[in-house]
Amino acid sequence: MFVILLINELLVMQIFKRTIAIKLILIALLIGISFFSHAKDINCKGRVKAVMDYPTYCDGGYAFITTGSNNKWICPASEKGNAIVLAALAANKSVDVYINNNNDAITCQTLPSYVKSRYIIIRA
Known about the structure:
Blueprint: H1 2-37, E1 41-43, E2 46-53, E3 62-66, E4 74-75, H2 79-91, E5 94-100, E6 115-116, E7 119-122
Parallel strand pairs: 4-6
Antiparallel strand pairs: 1-5, 2-3, 2-5, 5-7
């Protein structure tokens, strides 16, 4: 009886180990997929030239132009993005503005106006 319980416990441990291994593999795959999903972003970086309150096109937020956006307006993705843009304008700092390039359909030179950024980084 003891041997059967021991064998049963070993089988349960092996199944548990496999379950943990499968979960770890799935987590690694999900992290890898999310990393590569942003690999197609373009960076229309530069100094912030102008900021405009345009709630109609920017979900209630601001629109801004950088020296690298070909005079096209960009909408920050969030309220925090609005704050970063205003801080960069006030401090005359550069920003990196990452935008989805729609599978190589757009570049910073062919950027449509009022495109939404994915994320914004302020530079020193």
